Every structure is written in C-alpha cells, then in structure tokens.
Amino acid sequence: MQHADVDTKKWFKYNSKIIDCIKIMNSTALTNPILRVRIPATSANLGAGFDCIGIALDLWNSFELYHVPQQKECITIESYGEAADKLPKDHTNTIARVLFEELDETLGQKAPGPLRIVCRNNVPCGSGLGSSSTAVIAGLIFAHAIARRELTAENADTLKRAVLSRAVEIEGHGDNVVPALLGGLVVVTRSANGRLLTHRVPVSSQRVVVCVPDFAFLTTKSRAVLPPALPRYDAIHNIGHAVMTIEALRTGDLKLLAKAIDDKMHEPYRFPAIPGAIEAREAALDQGAVAACLSGAGPGILAFVEKNHEQVGRAMQTCFTEAGLSARYWIMNINETGAEITLG
Ligand code: HSE
Predict the structure, then answer these.
(1) For the whole model, what pTM was predicted?
(2) Does residue 61 sit in the same domain as residue 187?
(3) Reduced to 3 states, what is the DSSP secondary structure of residue 305?
(4) How many Å lie between the centroid of ligand 1 and the Cα of residue 33?
(5) Same domain assignment for residues 188 and 43
C-alpha cells in the first residue's frame, strides 16, 4: 500500500510521538527481525470438553517483526504459506489491528516507527486448528514486547503470561488461545466472578491425525447451529466424559480415551452440517484410530492414532472426497512448549 492510501488519521495517531530509547527497536537492518514468535496449532473441545479443553499441536505459524525506518506505510504484512494470497497486507490484518489497538488503547504507547511483519503460516485457516488464535497472540506479543522496550530470554515467559487473558478476551476461545500460549493439554474455565481459570495438565505423548476438508464452516456459523439450552442428562453425560478424557490423556490410557471421547453438546449438531464428516470419523475408527472427534468447531476431524497414521488420514480424506470436498491431513504430536519467543 502506498502512503497516499494510508488512513492518515490512524497513521498520525500511532506515530505522532516516536518513542525514544527503545532498545529492542534499535535494529534497522531489514534482514534482522527484532523479534520472532512461533505459535502452535491447537485443537479445542476434544469431544466432551466443549469450550473448556484444548491441546497444542506441533504445526506452527511463525511471525517476524521488523523495524523499517525507510518504509512509507505504518505497517506492511508479508504472508507465505497457508492463505497467503487472501490475508490483508496492511493495517487491516488481524495481527496489525491487535498490535496497534493493544499498544495504543491498553498500553498507552505509540508505535516506534514503520513496522513490517513477515508471516510464515502452516496452520490452515478456518480448519478448527486455531489459526486465528495464532494471529491474535502474535499481535499481542509484539505490542507488549514493544511496550516493555527490553526483552530478554528470561522475561519471554512472563510476556506469554501477560498476554494470556487479553488474548482470550480478544479472540474469544480460551480453549484455543491458552494451549497455543502454554502448550500441552489445558483446561480453561471462568470463576463465578468471571475471572479466567486455567490449568495445564501433564499429558502422555500422543500422535494425532487431523483431516481438514475444504469447507467453509466458520466458528460463527458452527456456533449458530447449536441449541441455546441442553437437556440436563446431556450436560451430565458431558461432565463425566470430559473428566475421563483428561484422565485418559494424562495417563495415556487409550482404552479409556476410546470411551471418553463422546459428546452430546456440540458434535451432534455440527457433524451433520459438514459433508462427509460422519463417514470420515467412522473411517478413522475402522482404520484403527483410538478415538476421533471434531477439531474445535470443525470442519477438521482429529483422530488419536497409535499406528497406521497414513491409512487413517487417507481414509478420512477419501470420505470427504466422496462427499465432493477436497481434503488434506496432517500427522502431528502434541506440543508441550506453546508459543516460542526469540529475540532477533
Ligand atoms: N470451543 C470452540 C467451539 C472452539 O467449539 O466453538 C472454537 O475454535
């Protein structure tokens, strides 16, 4: 975007006071980013843990922040990989919007000059693998790193904790955001007074296969198909199964996991809305998957798989193809670290 097209009010607002003495912004070399952030994909719900349980997976979106004094635009975004041609290249991009809003409105600071963000995306968009969480988290981490003016390896972890509740507030889905930041298996809920409660559960190592059809099933749409209230017995069913799911993943008890992943709160309404999804879940189980569920709000399906990973992936893919949708699959491990922040 050329300078003439920039929202000049916004440009002035963010750049009227150039902050001096920003140590982390002293790098002017285009080749050296100030900061790199790597954020993992996540799978929310895991069947009965609707809106409360999520895991991080080892598929990553990476973001690099550069200070480019000679650039005319206040920010430019360069994307590679997944949906690169569809993502905005200017301040309307989610990462830029979150970065500037957080810096200006929450932290009361200004951007130190023109910025460039380079995104290398491996997490498919609109798949149920938390790609939007990665963008929100990246924007927040960049904003807080700029505001802190100095970042060391030691305080990178503090930074992750500092953006946690803001990320949940902005993105809206704690069961994606929290595992993306902290890694592993996470339980997320709120206290009676609305305070965010998170608990990270040590998890036995597991491999999963996630198959994602090319089907637009945005979270807004997939939430709209859910009923406003549930019968009490469905709620009771889910409480029991969610607790068993956590215990099965903690201990690596696959027999328990096979019984635990059964949901009555969202999957009965969402599965029929995704062509080929019911068949894909069955096919995964037929090929020996331990358990299978919708990944987040879908349309991706996640299967816990001990062996024959490729066969399970291909079987799910075939079901979607037969339903008229192209599909891709990924074989992944659970990631234990969550977001990784490194200095330039
Ligand atoms: N728990 C959320 C849902 C996840 O199922 O709607 C959204 O990614």
Answers:
(1) 0.89
(2) yes
(3) coil
(4) 33
(5) yes
